[in-house]
């Protein structure tokens, strides 16, 4: 079982236990004896079963098992200790166990709420708040059921609840606000140079485009989705004039995975102002790294990219050889892009399929009919990639894989989530059961490029309640805070920086640091054993711990965020800054 499925199982059991205790309490208050005993026995078993899931999580190396042991386990044990003996003794009036059963229900719901709503980091304050809530709810039920507790018990209860509430509130006060990243660095252009220049103009505007035979409303570059494919050769200067015709919320161009100078990175409010209707902005950078990349707006990026403001950027090492096919996968108005395509290819032709995931969630790609190599990931060539057969690859949001093969005499087909998107002829192969490539053990390893680590940051990804402009929201958080309150990671030029990224939530977070490629060191404590992986987009699945490192060699203020863009908008965005 993966850590993610263990977490899900633990959550389901906790919900069942809570429902059992509360239901049993309600049934006994209504004097429905068999139902009350049945539900209580079920809740007891479920509560004890959590000992198994929590132990398994601890053994799987889940970072937060201690927290479950410290918060959920004591409350659950208290529930069992109070309700259990009463149940066994409840020969007389079943109503006498109503309050203990309800107490057990409140205790387990308290633990559940702390886990789901509060998120990381769990503190003594949250624990005390939960205790206050449990005590108060139990006292209210006690009164409501008419079995008045003695004055001493009432006063003691009140004192415990008030004390817990007061200390809890104090302890959970938000940390001191962190000053926002300074954004006063100039919007300077890259220096003007004499290198060959590739010039493009991209005009953003609302448009109607045809997808799977239907007209859909889109936001498009040059009235097409995806936007025009931009190509260059290493050494070219790429100059792109961005114009905004009528996108009211503004546009920018972010060169996803291309480590451009900071002023060209296209993050509104950080490296430039958003380009509003009628305005333009010229991007200029030298194409010094070959590979598969893409561009997209970073202004209201969740909506903007989803609506179609994206396109492909391919930088080749030299003149094109063989067949070079780009497959930028996207979902527009619920419909998949691009349209399926078939072309004849002469046997022996070298083919490079550039797979790009421009959506916010992972896609599964399977190439049938030929052996192939994964030549590059996120624009960087892999070392010693071996031929793969009947193997699928999972590409995270924003990620790119280049698959290379020599065309066989028989047809090949690329399936994306089971749908043939590109083929050289009819192929009927079921690819759903194929194993998935683990890039951490593919290709040939090489020694670590750095002998030391100068700076370390731990990023715990989670969900939790957060106040945003005084409105409460269920934010996607990093270390318990949400944008704009997440402290920046401050580094010095030349530092070797390590990020430890831990997913404490129940959902996948595709991580994306701007301006740098990170080298994967380990996942879940297991060192990366294959080709060095230099990534700009990688999925941190529930329960996973990734260690990645990079050299701080590109000064500026860089967005560092989840590339599920809805998550980024809902708090999971922060910045890397150079001091
Ligand atoms: Cu995310």
What does this entry look like structurally?
It is built from eight helices and 31 strands. About 4% of the residues have low confidence. With 579 residues, it is α+β, with helices and mostly antiparallel strands. The two termini are 43 Å apart. Strands 20, 21, 23, 25, 26, 27 and 29 form a seven-stranded mixed beta sheet that branches. The chain has a six-stranded mixed beta sheet with strand order 10-9-12-17-14-15, with no helix packed on it. Strands 11-19-18-13-16 form a five-stranded mixed beta sheet, with no helix packed on it. Helix 2 packs antiparallel against helix 3 and helix 4 runs antiparallel to helix 5. Helix content is 27%, strand content 32%. It is elongated, with a radius of gyration of 28 Å.
Identify the notable features of this structure and list them briefly.
single chain; 579 residues; alpha+beta; seven-stranded mixed beta sheet; six-stranded mixed beta sheet
């Amino acid at each position: 079982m993966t850590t993610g499925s263990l977490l899900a199982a633990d959550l389901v059991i906790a919900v069942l236990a809570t429902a059992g205790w509360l239901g049993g309490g309600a049934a006994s208050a209504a004097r429905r004896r068999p139902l009350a005993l049945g539900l209580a026995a079920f809740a007891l078993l479920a509560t004890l079963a959590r000992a198994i899931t929590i132990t398994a999580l601890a053994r799987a190396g889940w970072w937060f098992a201690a927290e479950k042991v410290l918060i959920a386990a004591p409350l659950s044990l208290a529930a069992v200790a109070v309700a259990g003996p009463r149940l066994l003794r409840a020969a007389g009036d079943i109503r006498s166990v109503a309050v203990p059963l309800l107490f057990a229900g409140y205790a387990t719901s308290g633990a559940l709420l702390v886990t789901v709503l509060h998120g990381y980091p769990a503190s003594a304050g949250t624990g005390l708040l939960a205790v206050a809530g449990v005590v108060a709810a139990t006292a209210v039920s006690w009164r409501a059921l008419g079995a008045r507790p003695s004055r001493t018990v009432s006063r003691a209860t009140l004192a415990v609840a008030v004390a817990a509430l007061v200390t809890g509130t104090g302890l959970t006060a938000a940390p001191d606000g962190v000053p926002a990243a300074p954004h006063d660095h100039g919007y300077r252009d890259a220096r003007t140079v004499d290198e060959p220049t590739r010039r493009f103009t991209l005009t953003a505007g609302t448009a109607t485009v045809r997808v799977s035979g239907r007209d859909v409303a889109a936001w498009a570059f040059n009235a097409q989705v995806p936007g025009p494919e931009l190509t260059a050769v290493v050494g070219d200067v790429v100059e792109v004039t961005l114009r905004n015709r009528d996108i009211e919320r503004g546009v920018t161009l972010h060169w996803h995975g291309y480590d451009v100078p900071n002023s060209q990175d296209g993050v509104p409010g950080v490296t430039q102002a958003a380009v509003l209707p009628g305005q333009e902005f010229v991007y200029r950078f030298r194409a010094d790294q070959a590979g598969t990349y893409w561009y997209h707006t970073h202004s209201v990026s969740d909506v903007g990219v989803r609506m179609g403001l994206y396109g492909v950027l391919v930088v080749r090492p030299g003149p094109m050889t063989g067949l070079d096919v780009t497959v930028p996968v996207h979902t527009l108005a619920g419909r998949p892009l691009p349209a399926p395509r078939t072309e004849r290819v002469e046997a022996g032709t070298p083919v490079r399929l550039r797979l790009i995931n421009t959506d916010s969630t992972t896609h599964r790609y399977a190439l049938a009919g030929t052996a192939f190599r994964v030549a590059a990931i996120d624009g960087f060539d892999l070392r010693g990639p071996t031929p793969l057969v009947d193997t699928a690859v999972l590409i995270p949001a924003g990620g790119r894989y280049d698959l290379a093969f020599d065309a066989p005499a028989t047809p090949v087909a690329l399936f994306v989530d089971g749908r043939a998107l590109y083929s050289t002829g009819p192929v009927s192969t079921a690819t759903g059961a194929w194993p998935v490539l683990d890039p951490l053990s593919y290709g040939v390893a090489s020694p670590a490029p750095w002998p030391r680590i100068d700076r370390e940051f731990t990023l715990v990804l989670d969900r939790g309640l957060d106040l945003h402009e005084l409105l409460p929201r269920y934010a996607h958080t990093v270390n318990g805070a949400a944008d704009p309150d997440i402290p920046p990671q401050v580094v010095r030029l030349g530092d070797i920086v390590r990020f430890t990224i831990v997913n404490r939530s129940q959902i996948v977070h595709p991580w994306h640091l701007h301006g740098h490629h990170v080298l994967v060191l380990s996942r879940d404590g297991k060192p990366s054993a294959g080709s060095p992986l230099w990534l700009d987009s990688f999925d941190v699945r529930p329960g996973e711990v990734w260690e990645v490192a990079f050299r701080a060699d590109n000064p500026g203020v860089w967005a560092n965020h989840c590339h599920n863009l809805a998550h980024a908008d809902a708090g999971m965005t922060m910045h890397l800054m150079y001091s």
